Amino acid sequence: MDLRDIEIFLTLAEELHFGRTAERLHVTPARVSQSIKKQERRIGAPLFDRTTRVVRLTPAGEQLYEELSVGYRRIMHGIDAVSAAARGITGTLRVGYSIPWAGDVLLQAGRVFRDRNPGCAVQVQEIQFNDLLGPMRRGEVDLQISEFPIDEPDITAGPVVFSEPRVLIVPADHLLARQETVSLEDLAQVPLIAARQIPGSLLDFHFPRHTPDGRPIPRGPAYTYWPEVLALVAAGLGVSPAAARAADYHDRPGIAFVPFRDAPTLDYGLLWPADSRAPRFIHAFIDTVCESAGITRHDAD
Predict the structure, then answer these.
(1) Of 78, 88, 156, 235, which is most buried by a Cβ count within 10 Å?
(2) Do residues 64 and 47 touch, judged by C-beta distance below 8 A?
(3) Residue 300 has what pLDDT?
(4) Does the entry feature the keyword DNA damage, yes or no (predicted)?
(5) pTM, 2 dp
């Protein structure tokens, strides 16, 4: 029994459907059927009970599955480990995120990446918005997902991983909280709570000084850490723009999330150092992140 026949048997034992097995392995259903018949002739007993409605393992099939699955996983793990080492995919990749939903994507991608590259470890850590590029510049992270736009000569801005509609976080008792939507022009009516110490490109985009029509936007208190924003808004000291998904992660009493009807999306993308400090395998991880986010690298570039 060759490795391909073992793979067909194990996949059919998991799927219990010839069509799905063929699709998963990129072969024809006839190839699956021929392989199983060959294995049954060799074993001397049927491995599957097959009817027009159902496919199930026989006792002999169940025993064979138990015996083969452990060994197959060890073989594939060994092949992956050697292949990863040959491609230079070994060592530790340190990745960061500045928003929790990006952390979810990175953790999922990290699990997939470690399974594919057993010689590699992935460490995931949170990055504060007020020190967005500091960890990368200090060599503490190799790659991160953060808010765009980033226009810095020492940082490479890679593909956008996902985009979010924008909302305005307002005090729950404010007049704007009663509206179904808000406009960028509404920012001229209320103090805007802005972040301290962020790149100029982010400051201009996220916390503008004027509305599109040129009206000045009053400044409210500045914040260092994101939880401060929620407290400041709840206290009625100003408003803050955010991604729509922030309502799923940061909702609390005293605030409301009102969608913008005319604001561009908030884009979140991958960043890494422009110099040679990044590990050789960073682009393999970028591909895995894009896959986990449900996009292709070509679409993201």
Answers:
(1) 156
(2) yes
(3) 43
(4) no
(5) 0.66
